[in-house]
Design a protein that fits this description.
alpha/beta
């Protein structure tokens, strides 16, 4: 699905098409690459409830983004399923934007009970984060000793509800879960689910990222070819983040997300709306653009549209490309945390 010809164009010629909406900054996991427990501990102050956009505010802004050529909308967090009555928001979005593809990214912890109501409300697809099929490594990586069997139950519930094909995202960190890449691929091969291996990224300033902990996509593919031959698959649409491959025996598809070793900034069509209503034009951004203030101060839809379009048209973010061109790490202080804008 390609961006609309009427979509605003940024300074690098990229059209807007995809919106990620964080519905909460809270999460029930403490994954070390996203919300390490030593930072996001019991005393951490999350946003007060009145600071977070209401469902009505989210839907109003989504409708304005719809005027800009929106094609795909993804609900994220934090962990979006910890927001009460999430299916109500999905239903409101579906009624307002009937032609838009609506997806959800979740850690799967509550998906077993929520899959059917979310599908009934109008959700199209779901992506589940699962970093290992090994029970102990999975518990270690989610930071709260959550059993991976319950995530697997959520995946199957989502498939049964018709939210497939299910995409399963695994962040690969050297020395932690990289030895389980092949086991992950084998477990889901032939199920119709798509496993996507993600290079460990330097998002935010709290995850202690080091380049030598990144397992390059090339190495991931080489390991997967121990299972079966792989054939490259063309991207399905402009701005697709995963490089796609399929098993040569026809038993399914896998993907790799290569934002460290093979940046894909050049055709990025995504914007992100944080839980408190700030617009971010890059996953690695340090500054957001306030939409909640004008929204609550009485700005009409045209004013909000002009504000949003104006932010996009001066956009020139390409952090991953800049990182790849440098020998030293780029400065990371002040960068927005991935948990705040949903990855």
């Amino acid at each position: 699905m390609n961006p609309s010809a009427d979509a605003p164009v940024d300074r690098l010629g990229r059209r807007f098409a995809d919106l990620r909406i964080s519905v909460t900054d809270r999460c029930n996991f403490r994954c070390p690459y996203c919300m390490p427990r030593e930072i996001f501990g019991p005393g951490y102050e999350f946003l007060p409830r009145d600071a977070i956009l209401s469902f009505e505010e989210i839907v109003r802004l989504a409708a304005i983004f719809g005027r800009m050529g929106l094609r795909k909308l993804r609900l994220t967090g934090g962990e979006p399923t910890v927001r009460a009555e999430l299916s109500t928001l999905v239903r409101m979005l579906r009624e307002t934007l009937p032609e838009i593809d609506i997806a959800l990214t979740t850690n799967g912890s509550r998906l077993a009970s929520l899959a059917e109501p979310l599908k009934a409300a109008g959700l199209d697809r779901v992506t589940v984060s699962l970093d290992s099929i090994d029970p102990e490594i999975c518990r270690e990586m989610n930071g709260v000793d959550f059993p991976h069997e319950r995530v697997l139950e959520g995946i199957e519930a989502a498939a049964a509800a018709g939210l497939g094909p299910i995409k399963i995202n695994a962040v690969v960190k050297r020395g932690v879960n990289d030895e389980g890449i092949v086991d992950m691929a084998r477990h889901f091969r032939g199920t119709g689910h798509i496993v996507r291996f993600i290079e460990y990224m330097d998002v935010g300033a709290t995850n202690g990222w080091k380049l030598d902990e990144v397992v390059p996509a090339r190495e991931i593919i080489e390991r997967l070819e121990q299972v079966e031959g792989l054939e490259a698959v063309q991207a399905a649409y402009t701005g697709e983040v995963a490089r796609r491959w399929r098993w040569s025996d026809g038993s399914g598809e896998i993907g790799v997300i290569t934002s460290v070793t093979q940046p894909f900034c050049g055709d990025c069509t995504r914007a992100r709306l944080s839980a408190e209503g700030s617009l971010y034009t890059c996953l690695f951004a340090s500054v957001g653009h306030d939409l909640r203030g004008p929204l609550r101060e009485g700005a009409d839809d045209e004013e909000l549209y002009q504000r949003i379009a104006g932010v996009w048209t001066v956009r020139e973010d390409r952090y991953s490309e800049l990182r790849a061109a440098m020998t030293d790490d780029l400065p990371r202080l002040g960068r927005v945390e991935m948990s705040h804008i949903g990855g």
